[in-house]
């Protein structure tokens, strides 16, 4: 990344890149990794905040290989330690771990390696660290630095406070001369401050990455036919791994049983299962013996499986932090993955019931969190933008292209205006009784005692929407709140706002979306990256080979090679050991060990393909053609484009087509892409287009915000995207 460059000397950079290549087979840094590693090399304390999948572990692992002595890594869970040690060993790095409940011979082996000066990293649990002093742990081997993984566990404000982490506050005192480095994926400033305080970090290098996960597709729908929705997602991911979250244990068992009865490979996980069963189910999932884990929120901490391709929430989590954490377990490897949440307003009450025993103050805070996430469910604008905003980050694009609201995955509700008026007028009539639940009950024609005893069944709006699903009615109400057409007062009573009254008086148009009508949408982020059928066949063959090697080595398949590497091998089809070594994720050790079986498998699948097609296969295209979308979407894109060609602005097109401007922008970009257009000037003034291209040269990392800023806002984001897209296609990219 360009922004990293000035911070480290060319020398350090070269050294680090050489290690990354030799050990891991990576040729470039992820954002902020270079600076994080440089901080360790310069012995300056650091706090590194990167999202899940951001690549934190390598930030201390790589410099550990360049510094003298053994690096001590504190990690909260045995499973996490084991995984990291196993992965390091696969890459030829000597690492070990010490924790309670470890067999004597394992400890003795670690001690031997330490004495022989072979170990580069020693993982310890905080309990172990509290029991012994570090010198005796290290058995005289010199300490290089101390890394604290999952550092938020030290903070009460984090979502995963661990009392045993509190002991780490003594590290600074005990080792005044040793630099400390903390790593976490928890984004709140309060937690970050707390970590710095508790560990007494000295003028630490603070590195906070973007929390955007561009490879995740977000969507949320009111829960109706929840199991069918889940199946839609599961079917898109045959033989791939996924996590399904439920609120309660009973539901976990029910869904896992149902999936199994329907022929899918699934296992349950919740605190009610005995430890042995939990461990077995988790291990089976990690080793790809089970595809789907159905779990409560108890599942996930300590899972660093990189190839989880979907996360489905069958109920709403209790906060956006939890959602970010849980959904974030998808796609750590950076490949496309999808996150679907099914929600109902009832989930708010379910969570409230579960915290009914907690002190008042906590209950109020919990309710505020629930309201925030429920609001997020109801929005009709970009989900990514709203999620990032919650973490105080500004998302630069108007359309992220990877959430249900941005991809136009939900059609407009044909009778939007009438429905909006019914909901708003129901509020007006209910006066001080207009809570969200009552408004929905009245419109749905509920005969519950609460409604009839209050006489609400006498209102003219009673039962007006009784033919529509309740979840849909609740969602339309949420959309009206999101659009600012209604708002809740201090006491939670809803009323139309000034803008809402305009709708009631029929002076203002309004457009609601129908989230229940449409199926869940297959994420489009995948399209440009899809393997051709031939490549897919090679991929499957390599996947099978990976499984058998993993079994033999008794490690998880992803520790042999990640999907990123298998895909690259399937695309490149290396023919020689050197070509094999050049693939992403193939370091020296794996190249030496695995070239032979993998090259043989690639040759064999190539021969099979030749035999089947009767001709040698064409060389793999450098850029696969994007997939043609289905007819309906294509027609919408065409229509948006025709309007643009007529000289309409995006706002006008959006109003005409009853879609959000951001959706229209997405359509236009996609249309240009599909038609392979290389000249934007009929639609963007030539002079402006030239300025955009010039500004882009100075901003090599592909971000649009700097270009937008450089031009002082003269070009819209859409204009920038169109111009740069055309330029890229012109240059054959
Ligand atoms: P985190 O701990 O931040 O969630 P990990 O350390 O598990 O993330 O890294 C996530 C994935 O990204 C791993 O599969 C890792 O090997 C990979 N990765 C890390 N750094 C790089 C890099 N520079 N290039 C390519 N892949 C990387
Ligand atoms: Zn979006």
What does this structure look like?
This protein has a seven-stranded parallel sheet, with helices on both faces. Strands 8-13-12-9-11-10 form a six-stranded parallel sheet, sandwiched between helices. Strands 14-15 form a two-stranded antiparallel ribbon. Mean pLDDT is 88; it is low at 1-6 and 617-629. It is of the alpha/beta class. Zinc ion (ZN) is lined by residues 382-384, 400, 403, 405-406.
Keywords:
single chain; 733 residues; alpha/beta; 48% helix; disordered N terminus; binds adenosine-5'-diphosphate; binds zinc ion
Distance, first to last CA: 20 Å
Strand content: 5-15%
- Treating each run of at least 4 consecutive H or I residues as one helix, how many helices? 32
Structural class designation = alpha/beta
Determine the oligomeric state from the structure: single chain
Largest sheet: 7 strands, parallel
> What general form does the structure show?
globular
> Count of DSSP E strands?
15
Biggest β-sheet: strands ordered side by side in the sheet? 3-4-2-5-6-1-7
Low-confidence stretches: 1-6, 617-629
Helix content: 40-55%
Rg of Cα set: 28 Å
Q: Overall pLDDT, averaged?
A: 88
Bound molecules: adenosine-5'-diphosphate, zinc ion
């Amino acid at each position: 990344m360009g922004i990293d460059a000035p911070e480290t000397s060319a020398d350090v950079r070269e050294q680090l890149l050489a290690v990354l290549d030799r050990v891991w087979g990576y040729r470039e840094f992820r954002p902020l990794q270079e600076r994080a590693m440089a901080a360790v090399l310069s012995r300056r304390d650091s706090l590194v905040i990167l999202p899940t999948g951001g690549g934190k572990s390598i930030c201390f692992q790589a410099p550990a290989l360049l510094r003298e002595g053994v690096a001590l890594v504190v990690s909260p869970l045995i499973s996490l330690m084991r995984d990291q040690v196993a992965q390091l060993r696969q890459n030829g790095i000597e690492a070990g771990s010490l924790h309670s409940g470890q067999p004597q011979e394992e400890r003795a082996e670690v001690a031997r390696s330490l004495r022989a000066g072979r170990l580069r990293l020693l993982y310890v649990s905080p309990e172990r660290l509290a029991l012994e002093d570090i010198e005796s742990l290290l058995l005289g081997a010199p300490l290089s630095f101390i890394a604290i993984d999952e550092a938020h566990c030290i903070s009460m404000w984090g979502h995963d406070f661990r009392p045993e982490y509190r002991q780490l506050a003594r590290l600074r005192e005990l080792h005044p001369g040793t630099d400390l480095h903390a790593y976490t994926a928890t984004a709140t400033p309060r937690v970050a401050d707390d970590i710095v305080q508790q560990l007494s970090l000295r003028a630490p290098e603070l590195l906070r990455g973007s929390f955007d996960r561009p490879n995740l597709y977000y969507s949320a729908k009111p829960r109706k036919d929840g199991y069918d929705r889940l199946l839609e997602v599961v079917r898109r991911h045959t033989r791939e791994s996924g996590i399904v979250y439920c609120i309660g244990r009973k539901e976990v068992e029910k869904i896992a049983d149902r999936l199994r009865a329907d022929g899918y490979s699934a296992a349950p996980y919740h605190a009610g299962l005995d430890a042995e069963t939990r461990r077995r189910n988790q291990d089976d999932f990690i080793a790809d013996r089970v595809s789907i884990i159905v779990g409560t929120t108890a599942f996930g901490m300590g899972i660093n499986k990189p190839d989880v391709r979907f996360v489905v929430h069958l109920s709403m989590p209790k906060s956006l932090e939890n959602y970010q954490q849980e959904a974030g377990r998808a796609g750590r490897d950076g490949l496309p993955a999808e996150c679907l949440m099914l929600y109902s307003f009832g989930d708010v009450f379910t969570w409230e019931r579960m915290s009914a025993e907690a002190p008042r103050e906590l209950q109020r805070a919990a309710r505020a969190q629930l309201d925030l996430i429920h609001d997020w469910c109801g929005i009709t604008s970009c989900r990514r933008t709203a999620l990032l905003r919650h973490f105080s980050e500004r998302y630069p694009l108007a359309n992220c292209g990877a959430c249900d609201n941005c991809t136009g995955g939900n059609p407009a509700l044909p009778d939007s205006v009438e429905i909006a008026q019914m909901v708003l007028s129901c509020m007006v009539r209910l006066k001080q009784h207009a809570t969200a639940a009552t408004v929905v009950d009245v419109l749905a024609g509920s005969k519950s005692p609460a409604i009839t005893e209050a006489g609400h069944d006498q209102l003219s709006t009673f039962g007006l929407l009784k033919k529509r699903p309740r979840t849909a009615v609740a969602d339309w109400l949420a959309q009206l709140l999101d659009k600012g057409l209604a708002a809740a007062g201090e006491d939670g009573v809803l009323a139309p706002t000034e803008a809402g009254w305009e709708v009631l008086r029929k002076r203002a148009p309004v457009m609601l979306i129908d989230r229940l009508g449409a199926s869940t949408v297959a994420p489009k982020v995948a399209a440009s990256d899809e393997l051709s059928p031939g490549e897919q066949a090679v991929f499957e063959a390599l996947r099978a080979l990976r499984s058998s090697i993993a079994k033999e080595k008794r490690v998880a398949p992803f520790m042999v090679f990640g999907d990123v590497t298998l895909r690259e091998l399937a695309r490149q089809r290396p023919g020689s050991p050197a070509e094999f070594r050049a693939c992403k994720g193939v370091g020296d050790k794996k190249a030496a060990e695995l070239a032979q079986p993998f090259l043989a498998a690639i040759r064999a699948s190539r021969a099979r393909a030749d035999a089947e097609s009767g001709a040698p296969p064409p060389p793999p295209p450098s850029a696969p053609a994007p997939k043609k979308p289905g007819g309906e979407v294509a027609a919408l894109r065409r229509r948006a484009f025709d309007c643009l060609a007529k000289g309409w602005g995006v706002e006008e097109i959006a109003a005409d087509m009853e879609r959000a401007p951001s959706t229209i922008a997405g359509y236009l970009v996609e249309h240009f892409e599909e038609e392979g257009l290389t000249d934007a000037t009929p639609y963007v003034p030539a002079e402006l287009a030239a300025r955009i291209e010039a500004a882009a040269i100075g901003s090599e990392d592909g971000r649009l915000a700097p270009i937008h800023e450089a031009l002082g806002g003269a070009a819209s984001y859409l204009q920038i995207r169109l111009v740069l897209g055309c330029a890229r296609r012109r240059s054959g990219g």
